[in-house]
Every structure is written in structure tokens, then in C-alpha cells.
Amino acid sequence: MNQNIKIPFTDLYPQYEELQAEIDMAIKDIITRSDYITGPTVDKFEQALCDYTGAEDCAGIGSGTNALVCALRALDIGTGDTVWTVGHTFVSTTEAIVNVDAKPESLT
Question: Is 3 within the bounds of a domain?
């Protein structure tokens, strides 16, 4: 029995292959403009997400950690607050809580 069978986690290549020209053109456009964080591509994405969800506003965020920090700040969570989370979460969950000067507390 072969014990070295490789089972891929996911294979996105067929999806890429279907949209390859469009994806490659979008990447080239972003690289050409050096528009890695903001700019018209992000503006279009944010507007498309608002249109899709019916939200009034939308903000593209650079990472999940930063998104959690924004959510905590939007809820006015900070110094002196305790935020309950699970003990088996990714480190960024706790990091976001600490970044707003709140105290993480484990539910487990």
C-alpha cells in the first residue's frame, strides 16, 4: 500500500483557468499602478460589496486581525472592557482584543 498519497487541500486551478485572462489582466493593472492597498480597484470592490449586501458603507481591510480591531472599536470596546472568546481560537482573535486595550477572557 502506498502511504505517500497526496490529497490536495483544495484545487483552485480549474476556477483560475476559467478566468485566467481576466485575473491576469487585473493583477497586471494593479502592479502597473502600484495600487496594492487603496485605489480604484478597492473602491470598486467596496461599492460592489455594498450593492450586493445592501450596506450603506464598506471598508476593505488588510487582514482579519485589523478587521476584528475595527469591529471592536466600532463597538467602543477598549480599556477596562473584558471580551469573552474561546480558548482554542487563532492567536489574532486575542491579539485584536489586546490591541484595543481590552482584556481577553476565555470561555473554556
Answer: no
